[in-house]
Amino acid sequence: MSLVIAGTVRVPPENLAAFQPHMEAMLAASRAEDGCLVYSYAVDVEDPGLIRVFEAWRDQAALDAHFQAPHLADWRAAWPALGVHDRRLMLYEVAAERAL
Known about the structure:
By secondary structure, the chain is α+β, with helices and mostly antiparallel strands. The protein has helices at 16-31, 60-68, 70-82, and strands at residues 2-10, 36-43, 50-57, 85-94.
C-alpha cells in the first residue's frame, strides 16, 4: 500500500521569491530519498501565497525515514523567518490505483 500526502501551506506572497530556493532544495533532497514516488509543490494561480503540496511514498517505512531526514529539519527551520503558516496536510492510504 502506498501513501499519499496532499494539502497546502501558506506563505505571504511577498516572501514567495525568498521561499523558492528552500522549496527547490526540499524537492531535490526529498525526490532523491528511497521510497519517494512523487514530491511536488505548486503555487496556486489565483492565490499566490497558497502552496499546494503533493507527495507519494512507497510505504510507511519510507515516509518515516523522510520525517527523520536532516533536510526536513532544515526546511521547517526556515519557515518562521519566511512567515510560513496554515499547514494543512492529509495522509491517504492507497490500496489500489488505475488510470482514468
